[in-house]
Specification:
The complex is a heterodimer of chains A (130) and B (377). Chain A has 130 residues and is mostly helical. Chain A has 6 helices and 4 strands, in the order H-E-E-H-H-H-E-E-H-H. In chain A, helix 5 packs across helix 6. Chain B is 30% helix and 28% strand. The model of chain B has no long low-confidence stretch (mean pLDDT 88). Classes of the chains: A mainly alpha (130), B alpha/beta (377). Chains A and B meet through strand 3 and helix 6 of A and strand 4, strand 9 and helix 6 of B. Strand 3 of chain A pairs antiparallel with strand 9 of chain B.
Chain lengths: 130, 377
């Protein structure tokens, strides 16, 4: 493969850049399409990089936190959790939190749900510094 | 003024998911007993507001600790009713507090400190844990152990003589240790374990005086009298004092010996600065000594602060062959017992019948005809 695909495309004879040059996984790929894919990837990386370099609390949304817990739960990696809270003003509180309950509370942004999201962010911050 | 070294601990049995709390606080009790503290457990039915407040009033403990459900304004009982809340937070006045409970450090803790609690350790948000089997001691549970050991580190550190700030640090370090433990684990729950250990760790607060201690500052050296003796010669002219102290000696220590009549009248006093661990000193006797009823008190203390490390009392004994022999037996009973034991073992070993050796060679067979040798001159 040419080292710099964009400049290589410019050096090709007229029309040659638009006819297939490779067959990748059964699909015909022209030099111009390959150059375009590279340019798209670079643009996507440039968009991601500042976000990846920033601390988690800046770029992280509740949606992402919930998705992380959902995915972890789907992998069977969220155990039931217990808390030592009490009934307050006659209102029964949840003392046993299954994976589903934690996700439900997080999606509903209840007080328990906010704890779930905050704890997940805390974990990400810890992992960030490994 | 609360009594130093006395601890009151709430241990619920019946509240929801509370069996692990009961077991976990049992480890705190064991450590207190090991360290010689006077810990009073309020277990099950005793873990209710009336008995607990009554015990606080009666025992006046320097430390109040325990586990139970909680909220920002209340710490609850065996039946999840309030034990301590904002209206009776003054009961924690002058005490060192640690509560394994949800959220009490948000309001109850500050209020207790405002009303005079020396220090308050607790959590300002929900305290969470993960455990496989809630009917078991969490120390035996692969997930529960990390949470409860870390929490217990706080009161146990106080028992060991650390101050509130140091106890907080020990608990924090324990949570951190377990977070790292789970980071390197291959268990599927590892990330969630890390997450909730970090959560508990970072929501542990210590309010009030971080220098508050349960047992007073650690002394440089402690000890005890293994032996003291107060003698008088048979002719009644000379007093003799002997002692054997197990702890520190020399510079910084003072041994004071005071002797009395049976009715408590002081007869004399002797201060030995930089005393030796083992020694015998003599001096002229006082008038009309009464062996068997006059007595002496030996006190070992720190010179600058006057803090007492140990004291022992003994009655005046007259030197005589029998008394001296009894004294030797008493003073060296350990060595005598060891010597006797060694002698007994020796006799058992050397005195027993040897086992019969297996026959290796054919038994000696005497010749068929006796050989007769005649010496002729």
């Amino acid at each position: 493969m040419p080292r710099n695909i964009e400049s290589w495309v410019g050096k090709l004879p007229p029309g040659e850049a638009d006819i297939p040059y490779w067959q990748i996984a059964g699909q015909m790929v022209t030099p111009r399409e390959a150059a375009e894919a590279k340019r798209e990837a670079a643009t996507r990386w440039a968009g991601m990089k500042p976000m990846l370099e920033s601390p988690p609390e800046i770029g992280v949304t509740d949606e992402l936190l919930i998705q992380r817990i959902r995915d972890r739960a789907a992998q069977g990696r969220v155990p039931t959790r217990y808390v030592l809270t009490k009934d307050s003003s006659g209102k029964r509180v949840t003392l046993q939190l299954t994976a589903e309950e934690q996700i439900r509370q997080a999606e509903a942004h209840t007080a328990i749900g906010e704890d779930v999201l905050e704890a997940e962010l805390k974990l990400m911050q810890y992992l960030e510094n490994l | 003024m609360p009594v130093e070294g006395v601890v009151l601990q709430c241990r619920p049995l019946s509240c929801q998911y509370c069996m692990p709390l009961y077991y976990a606080t049992g480890h705190v009790s064991e450590e207190a007993a090991r360290l010689g503290l006077d810990l009073h457990d309020m277990i099950g039915e005793l873990d209710e507001q009336a008995p607990v407040l009554d015990a606080i009033h009666t025992l006046d403990p320097l430390m109040f600790t325990g586990a139970g459900h909680g909220s920002p304004d209340a710490f609850t009982s065996n039946t999840e009713k309030d034990v301590i809340n904002l209206s009776n937070a003054y009961m924690l006045s002058d005490r060192i507090v640690y509560l394994l409970s949800c959220s009490t450090a948000a309001q109850l803790g500050p209020e207790a400190v405002r009303q005079g609690a020396r220090s308050y350790g607790g959590y300002d948000r929900d305290w969470s844990w993960i455990q496989n089997d809630l009917t078991l001691d969490p120390y035996l549970d692969p997930y529960g152990e990390a949470f409860f050991r870390s929490s217990n580190e706080y009161p146990i550190s106080l028992f060991e003589g650390k101050n509130a700030g140091e106890a907080h640090g020990s608990a924090f370090d324990s949570y951190s240790y377990w977070v790292e433990y789970w980071r390197t684990s291959t268990d599927g729950y590892a990330a969630e374990m890390m997450k909730w250990l970090l959560w508990d760790r970072d929501h542990l607060l210590t309010l009030g005086d971080l220098n508050a201690r349960l047992t007073g500052p650690q002394q440089p050296s402690l000890g005890e009298f293994r032996y003291v003796k107060f003698w008088i010669d048979e002719d009644g002219s000379t007093l003799e004092f002997s002692w054997d102290w197990s702890g520190g000696s020399g510079f910084g220590y003072v041994l004071t010996i005071t002797w009395y009549r049976a009715d408590g009248t002081e007869l004399g006093r002797m201060d030995r600065e930089m005393p030796k661990k083992q020694n015998t000193v003599t001096q002229a006797a006082y008038a009309d000594p009464q062996p068997g009823s006059d007595y002496a008190i030996f006190v070992w203390r720190q010179e600058d602060t006057g803090v007492e490390y140990g004291r022992k009392e003994c009655t005046l004994t007259m030197h005589s062959f029998t008394n001296d022999l009894l004294d030797i037996l008493d003073r060296y009973k350990l060595y005598i017992a060891l010597g006797g034991g060694a002698l007994l073992l020796g006799l058992m070993f050397f005195g027993r019948r040897r086992p019969t050796m297996p026959m290796i060679y054919p038994p000696y067979q005497p010749p068929a005809q006796p050989q007769v040798i005649v010496l002729k001159s």
